[in-house]
Amino acid sequence: MSAKDKNITGSQKVESKLSDFLSRYQRLIIVAAIAIVVVIVAVCIAVSVMQGNEDRKFNELADLEAQYASFYSLDSQSEEYAAATGSFRSSADALIASSGLDSYPGAKAALLVGDLAFTAQDYQAASDSYASVAAAQSDSYLGQLAMMNEAACYENLGDQTLALELYNEVFDTYGEDSPFAPKALFNAGRLYVELGDTELARATFEQLTGLYLAPENGGQASEYAMMAEAYLVTMN
């Protein structure tokens, strides 16, 4: 038998075995194929639903921000303002509950709730909202913003020591590249002055001017660095 005939015979055997396998397990193969298709369809539907839910939450946040912006045109002592803020709080609470503070929509909604309380001079309620966002969003811009706002609340509550700790925490945690670093350092220096610790105040203002008065990358000097420089002049 030639090598060619041997190859043909071998191929026929493989085809025969494959045909026999397909014939014997045809039903099982069809069931498995259907199951795979069902799984793929289910995954596609789940992804579509999740994306739809995410879009819905961002739309709810946009509506919430529009509600908040409308407060500026209302008399804060009017019944209309009270009704509008009540509706806003209900919507915000629902969005926070459905999204969670670990999501952008939920965290931003909580920040807006804090902002509304701050505007109403309910600084303790505002600080509670900001603190919850700062904890849940510790690795994001929102977390840094919330911590700065929380510090401002404690200043208004008369707790300068806690406010100072928070300003220092912003800089110590997020470093000199944080967008809030210059402001945090300036506020820390200012509070050291108010608390009578001129040595730490001077050191903080010098650190601020050293980092942000003449940035190495050629950028503009920070306004907080310029204010710190003015403070240093008065302290000499």
Task: Summarize the structure in words.
- With 236 residues, the protein is mostly helical.
- The chain has 2 domains: 147 residues, no CATH class; 78 residues, Alpha Horseshoe (Serine Threonine Protein Phosphatase 5, Tetratricopeptide repeat), CATH 1.25.40.
- It is 81% helix and 0% strand.
- The protein has 10 helices and no strands.
- The longest helix has 45 residues.
- The N terminus is likely disordered.
How many DSSP helices? 10
Low-confidence stretches: 3-7, 44-49
Task: Please identify the structural class as seen in this structure.
Answer: mainly alpha
Please summarize the sheet with the most strands: none
Shape: flat
Number of strands: 0
Can you tell me the number of structural domains?
Answer: 2
Spatial separation of the terminal alpha carbons: 109 Å
Q: Summarize model confidence as the mean pLDDT.
A: 85
How large, in whole angstroms, is the Cα Rg? 31 Å
Strand content: under 5%
- Helical fraction equals over 70%
Helices and strands, in order, run as HHHHHHHHHH
